[in-house]
Structure to design on (102 residues):
């Protein structure tokens, strides 16, 4: 993945600014590297299927998760390279203003 810019980071934060999507993200981080099926996520969150589908679609469209069909199930997994790029973007200038750190 290329280095992240502020526009991409802002879009990721906007999409993850929803409590359900943030919870899904955390579930997928915990379930890595295999991920979780839509049914597994739904049972853990107790949200309607249509609501979950909307959230997963949004997360896939911004590139933070990947969905793969496995038989009759859809497996969802986190794209760690995107999460890492977001983290790196936030922390790239960490402590740059402190003379004792430089």
């Amino acid at each position: 993945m290329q280095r992240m810019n502020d526009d991409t980071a802002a879009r990721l934060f906007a999409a993850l600014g929803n409590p359900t999507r943030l919870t899904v993200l955390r579930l997928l981080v915990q379930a890595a590297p295999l991920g979780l099926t839509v049914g597994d996520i739904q049972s853990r969150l107790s949200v309607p299927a249509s609501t979950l589908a909307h959230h997963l679609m949004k997360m896939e469209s911004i590139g933070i998760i990947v969905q793969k069909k496995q038989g009759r199930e859809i497996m969802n997994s986190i794209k760690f390279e995107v999460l890492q790029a977001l983290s790196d973007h936030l922390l790239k200038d960490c402590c740059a203003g402190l003379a004792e750190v430089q």
